[in-house]
Request: fold
Amino acid sequence: MRVFSRVLNNLPLAIFDRLRLNSDKTQFIWVDSRQQVANVTVTEILLDGHSITTSHNVSCLGVVTSRCFYQLRQLWSVRPTLSTNNARMLAHAFIASRVDYCNSILYQTAVVHLRPLQLVLNAAVCLIVKKRKWDSITPTIRDNLHRLLVRQRVEFKICTSC
Reply:
């Protein structure tokens, strides 16, 4: 823990200039095996004068969704020149891989926190099949693309990775 504190305290000031820590909204989670996490006795971390409490679950994944929506906007600009298979491949490479990257953290996360990720996947489906965001895409996801909803997707990925 002392090494971790030293690393945090020696971060360049430029990082803190761009990040404004709000101790009410900032959370820290220990990710390790159950046995290792059980040995951790630290419940609070002091970072740049802000006290951050450790948490047992994740409650915000805004960075993932904002990057995905950025990629989708870029893909929409070239979508008229892509075939459906190429659009599917690019959507998987840029979007689905980012959503799947954090499956172990997303397991048993509250639905309210999975909704932004579901919106990203829905927007990716709209990109693939050239539908507008107001069109119903649930049948398209299920019947044409054989995709799972985010919660089902996370559970499937975790079950198949064991």
In short: Residues 2-55 form one domain. The CA atoms of residues 154 and 160 lie 10 Å apart. The two ends are 30 Å apart (CA to CA). The beta strands are 28-29, 44-47, 50-55.
